[in-house]
Amino acid sequence: MGHWHYGHNVAGYLPEADTGTADTFADAKAGLAEDISFERDGLDYAPGDEFDEALYVSLVETADELGTSEGPEFLAYVRDGGEHRIATAWWITPCGEGDSCETWQAGQAEEGSR
Ligand SMILES: [Zn+2]
Fold this sequence. Notes:
By secondary structure, the protein is an alpha+beta fold. Helix content is 41%, strand content 21%. Helix 1 (25-41) runs antiparallel to helix 2 (50-68). Bound molecules: zinc ion (ZN). Zinc ion binds next to strand 1 and helix 3. Residues 3, 5, 95, 97, 101, 103-104 line the site of zinc ion.
């Protein structure tokens, strides 16, 4: 069965947060949008701090871009304007492994046990 993975990570590094899986692009989109607002709300946002401000704006722009995305995949880079210098990639990708995907299987098992 087709499914999608989504998450975010600093370019060149493994995801720092858990990635998600979804059965449809729309679900993946909703999941990633939630992650983006969580990240945005968690910002230690000090007015006047140019880096935080740039990061905030970049997250808002990415959420907007995600909102208009039709799929089947999505990739946007969030930048903080200088502090970390390396962009964070926010992505949704269709998985080609189908039923043999271990990450997806683990998610299904978890859902079944609820
Ligand atoms: Zn997969």
